[in-house]
Amino acid sequence: MSTNFSRRHFVGTSAAALTAAILIRPSIAKAAAFPVTHSDADWHRILDPKRYAVLRQAATEAPFSSPLLNEHRRGTFVCAGCAQPLFSSATKFESGTGWPSFWRPLAGADRLRPDHSDGMDRTEVLCARCGGHLGHVFDDGPKPTGQRYCMNGLAMQFRPA
Question: Could you give all domains of the chain from N- to C-terminal order, each with its CATH number?
Answer without folding.
Answer: 28-160 (2.170.150.20)
